[in-house]
Amino acid sequence: MRVGRLAGALALVAATLLGSAAPGHAQELTIYSSLPLVGEIGTQARDVVLGERLALEQAGGRAGPFSIRYVSLNDGSRRLGAWQPELVARNARGATLDDTTIAYLGEFNSGASTFSIPMLNEAGILQVSPSNTYVGLTRSRGAFRGEPDKYYPAGTRTYGRVVPADHLQAAALARYVQVEGVKRVFLVDDNEVYGRGIADLVRPRLRARGIRLVGRRHLAPRGRNLTRIAGAVGRSSADAMLFGGITQNRAARLWQAVHRRDHALKLFGPDGVADSGFTRRLSAGAARRTYITDPTLDPAAYPASAQAFYSAFRARFGRAPEPYAIYGYETMSVVLDAIRRAGPHGNERDAVVGAYFRTRDRDSVLGRYSVDENGDTTLSTYGGLRVTRRGQLVYARTLDSSR
Q1: Beta 82-83 vs 393-400: how paired, if at all?
Q2: Does the structure show a pLDDT above 80 at 332?
């Protein structure tokens, strides 16, 4: 990140947006969403927005006595095809300078949230992510030094998520590798906090299942060492490559390069590549060898309220949703519920944060869950996905992280 560009972006926002740091007694409140609406992940992120909009529409645009204004922001660069720190900072700063802001939905990428969480935390704004899984945003075990405390300069927690964190996804990935009969794994990550984090977490879980790690590499920016990594994987004795990272960091190109070296190699990835922007770039051969973990389960495994969501989404938008749309729907829904449960104080930021962290036994489209003291959901099950010849993600099995 270039500090000069970031400072310039913040100065521009500060000069153009007016408002105080607290919503006071506003009867119209604003909920911001910040997601990468362009690039490879854009299709997935836009469906998250549609899920959020649908939840708000079904609530009549209100939470308790308060009218809710929804503002969708983009943190992705069309030129670079991925989220950018200065865009994330611009979005978060803009939300803090709006005196009607009551909550912020985002970011999509865990690395992006490392920039927005501290800004929103200082302003006391509830932030809930539909998709962040990196463990260091909320927990110290398995995280890097100083995490998660360095993201909370106010000394209190204001961030949560509706997806299970990566200590659970790592267990699910190791289980998926095991049930597919893999004995030797080559580990690759994209060198971002999410990718490195999940790669670090999965190592001991593979070892505990008797699976040998035969190599590890870090993908350079823009995939500059991609060919060398594919060669190293091909020369190893691995039965599978396991990738920790996101679609935008040349994941599909890595998949293709590795598959060309060894057509029999199985290819595993986390939810960071569980989107059509990745799968539609795979050849039929690579798709057949691909296994992905994702919090999204078989629609039939969800409660009746989820079936109603899928039906309403198709009726409203004319097609089936991308996997994370249901998480966008729940992110908006749980925030609206927190505002309602805060009662007459639903226009006060600290009251809404407190109500969110007191969420217990919530019956949602994702199933029943509570929010723990870290801001994490108590949901723990992941889905094991496969990819069709046409690049569509399909549910294959349920992966219980506790097994």
Answers
A1: unpaired
A2: yes
Vertex 110: Cα angle to 137 and 45 (nearest 5): 140
User: What mean pLDDT comes out for the span 167-192?
Assistant: 97
Sign of CA dihedral 70, 63, 46, 80: positive
Give yes or no on whether 3-164+303-371 and 166-294+382-400 have one common fold: yes
Q: How confident is the model at residue 25 (pLDDT cuts 50, 70, 90)?
A: low
Give mean pLDDT, residues 162-179: 97
Q: What is the pLDDT of residue 380?
A: 94
Residue pair 240/206 in contact by the 8 Å Cβ criterion: no
Estimate the crossing angle of helix 110-122 against helix 85-96, to 10 degrees: 30
Closest CA to 100 of 31, 17, 10: 31
pLDDT band at 20; cut points 50, 70, 90:
very low
Predicted pLDDT of residue 19: 36
Task: Check residue 40 and give its pLDDT.
Answer: 79
Mean pLDDT of the chain, nearest integer? 92
Q: Give the pTM.
A: 0.86
> Domain limits of the chain?
3-164+303-371, 166-294+382-400
Cis status, amide bond into 40, omega within 30 of 0: no
| Collapsed DSSP state (helix, strand, coil) of residue 64 | coil
What homologous superfamily does CATH list for 3-164+303-371?
A: Response regulator (3.40.50.2300)
**Which distant-in-sequence residues (6+ apart) come within 8 Å of 90 by Cβ?**
9, 10, 12, 13
The architecture that CATH gives domain 166-294+382-400 is 3-Layer(aba) Sandwich (3.40)
Instruction: Answer yes or no: are the C-beta atoms of 107 and 83 closer than 8 Å.
Output: yes
Pick from 170, 178, 176, 85: nearest CA to 133? 170
Contacts for 313-316: CB closer than 8 Å, 24+ residues apart: 313/50, 313/51, 313/54, 316/50, 316/54, 316/57
